[in-house]
Design goal:
The structure holds 2 protein chains of 2 kinds.
Chain A lengths: L7 H9 L5 H19 L2 E4 L1 H13 L10 E5 L26 H8 L3 E6 L33 H8 L5 E6 L5 H7 L2 E4 L19 E6 L2 H11 L17 H4 L8 E5 L2 H4 L3 H16 L3 E5 L7 H16 L18 H12 L2 H14 L5 H24 L2 E5 L14 H5 L6 H6 L3 E8 L5 E8 L4 H15 L10
Parallel strand pairs in A: 2-3, 2-4, 7-8, 7-9
Antiparallel strand pairs in A: 1-3, 4-6, 5-6, 5-10, 9-11, 10-11
Helix pairs in contact in A: 2-3, 5-6, 7-17, 11-13, 11-14
Chain B lengths: L5 H7 L6 H18 L34 H7 L3 E2 L2 E2 L9
Antiparallel strand pairs in B: 1-2
């Protein structure tokens, strides 16, 4: 087996036993990237030379960190000091941040190595990575299909074994949906679990950073290292961080699982429904208590989300005006002209669409009917989750209503927005949710199961996902890229 | 539904769309607004302050200045600069 085929935990074991050097690990992944990246297009910026140099330095260290020699791919909306961070937007095309996001500081302090920055939908707005301002990323399972989005580059990089682990961000499903499309484990932690200092803001009340990995164990390991309070992020929580890695291996007793049923499930792809039902059957057979949970307000979630997210985006993206940083047009007549020319030529179409939509929802005369109403709907959704978690430990649903779709298949914005139907409620409520692969369709496309938990109960989610993974062993399946 | 003044929204958002973009975006945005109007069906009475799901108390820090970015780092982000200054277009109009 080649080094690049190994999972994060397998690599860490080899590195800890000194059976391989950090440099060998990085070179193996760098060679893999050089061989297949032109097929996948996962990366906007590669940092291979620096990565190899960092590995050499780490090999010389006596005291090594917990991620010594592990290459990371980072979504290009997470700031990396000295490495270009573009958000896949022309407006930040040449932006090189002078500081690191807290998650990057945490990875580097444990001797992890940043190997590159991954493609995404511009400013994380999208579900296919087709909205990147630069190029499209391919799904390693089928190069004619999208990898999902917005963390599509991160998912494609892990699935094609260009890296063992990547970080993404999730505002409405942007980690879980690409994880499902690419056959990976993807976790959106509880709002406040992981610091967002240095994450370029899209919708601040919804955004969370989280990992994309090939196994549940890998996910638990990195969550131990990136979670926790950060004085630089006033929305980060000081709830204690458990040892997720030991938590996942605990025996589960008396678990009660809620499952999403009804109309929502009737409308999903038939093969996804079949795999979903198989899982539910299996759980029942193994004596796990099952209960269908019905959400009165789920059907209003998309409408609420597509008011709140664009509203916050229109406000957050006001900073890209050509004055302080990023791109500035060269010819303009006055200040207002500079603002609008810079923004009009710097932003792509989906970003403009959402900025205008958000401006509408926040504008005088509409605020109460739109933004305020959406916020109240959100409160009802959160309340329903809280009530449900009094009766069940976890709630499962398919991650997506369909498997990875083809490029150009969803030209109408609303049809693209509908692909978030299962994932956005967790962002609106602020609860943690994970996607774990549960099988393949006839066309050899991965299918994900979403597991949602109560606030700060990532351990329970990971524990259950680990149980499923031990049974299904999906990580054995790999896309054929030869 | 009330009329949407598309030009006014673009003006507020500091965007000057091309004719082609406008032809595409305006009907799309109107359609999305109609789609989110689904919320009109809901009659709700919830206090806004209870809107956020997480009950945990956000920790406060002491109001004490800390070391921030160096001048050099801040300057490195500017699109245009002169010596230690951020260069911006003339703001005061007229003679």
């Amino acid at each position: 087996m080649k080094l690049y085929e190994l999972s994060l935990m397998q690599l860490i074991n080899l590195l800890n036993k000194k059976e391989v050097k950090a440099e060998e690990v990085i070179r193996s992944f760098a060679e893999r990237i050089e061989r297949i990246e032109k097929k996948i297009n996962a990366f906007i910026t590669l940092n291979l030379e620096n990565a190899i140099n960092s590995a050499k330095l780490i090999d010389q260290k006596k005291q090594k960190g917990k991620l010594a020699g592990i290459p990371f791919a980072i979504k290009d909306n997470i700031l990396t000091k000295g490495i270009r961070t573009t958000c896949a937007s022309r407006i930040l095309e040449n932006f090189v941040p002078p500081y690191n996001a807290t998650v990057i500081e945490k990875i580097i302090s444990e001797d992890g190595i940043i190997i590159g920055k991954t493609n995404m939908d511009e400013f994380a707005m999208g579900s296919s990575t087709e909205n990147s301002g630069f190029f499209q990323t391919k799904n390693p399972w089928d190069l004619g299909r999208v990898p999902g989005g917005s963390s599509g580059g991160s998912a494609a990089a892990v699935a094609s074994m260009e890296v063992p682990i990547a970080l993404g961000s999730d505002t409405g499903g942007s980690i879980r949906q690409p994880a499902a499309f690419c056959g990976l484990v993807g976790l959106k932690p509880t709002y406040g679990r992981v610091s967002r200092y240095g994450l370029v803001a899209f919708a601040s009340s919804l955004d969370q950073i989280g990992p994309l990995t090939r196994t549940v164990e890998d996910c638990a390991y990195i969550m131990n290292l990136i979670s926790g309070f950060d004085p630089k992020d006033s929305t980060s929580s000081n709830q204690p961080v458990p040892d997720y890695l030991s938590e996942i291996k605990k025996e589960i007793k008396g678990l009660r699982i809620g499952f999403v049923g009804g109309n929502l499930i009737e409308n999903v792809d038939s093969r996804i429904r079949e795999l979903y039902n198989e899982i539910l059957h299996k759980l029942e057979k193994n004596g796990i208590g099952l209960e269908e949970v019905n959400f009165t307000y789920w059907e209003y979630a998309l409408a609420s989300y597509y008011i709140i997210a664009p509203s916050e985006a229109s406000s957050n993206l006001a900073r890209y005006d050509g004055i302080k940083y990023g791109y500035r047009v060269s010819s303009y007549s006055n200040l207002k002209d500079l603002y609008s020319k810079t923004r009009t030529s710097g932003f792509g179409e989906e970003v403009k669409r959402r900025i205008i939509l958000g401006t509408f929802a926040l504008s005088s005369g509409y605020y109460e009917d739109y933004y305020l109403k959406a916020i109240k709907t959100r409160a009802l959704i959160a309340k329903e989750f809280k009530e449900a978690f009094n009766r069940v430990d976890l709630i499962v649903s398919p991650t997506t209503p369909e498997p990875a779709f083809k490029f150009g298949e969803k030209l109408d914005p609303i049809s693209m927005y509908l692909s978030d139907i299962f994932t956005i409620t967790a962002n609106l409520a602020g609860i943690p949710a994970l996607s774990v692969p549960i099988g393949l369709t006839e066309e050899n496309l991965p299918v994900g199961l979403q597991i949602m938990g109560n606030y700060f109960e990532e351990s329970k989610i990971l524990n259950f996902a680990y149980l499923l993974e031990k049974d299904l062993k999906f990580y054995q399946y790999k896309p054929n890229l030869t | 539904m009330r009329q949407i003044d598309f030009d006014y929204l673009c003006e507020l958002a500091n965007l000057k769309l091309s004719r082609e973009e406008r032809i595409r975006l305006e009907p799309q945005i109107k359609k999305i607004i109609e789609w989110v109007n689904k919320l009109e069906e809901l009659k709700i009475d919830v206090n806004e302050e209870k809107a956020f799901g997480i009950d945990s108390i956000l920790p406060l820090r002491k109001d004490k200045p800390e070391i921030s970015l160096s001048l050099e780092d801040v300057l490195s982000m500017f699109p245009e600069k002169e010596r230690n200054f951020l260069k911006v277009p003339k703001v005061i109009e007229g003679k």
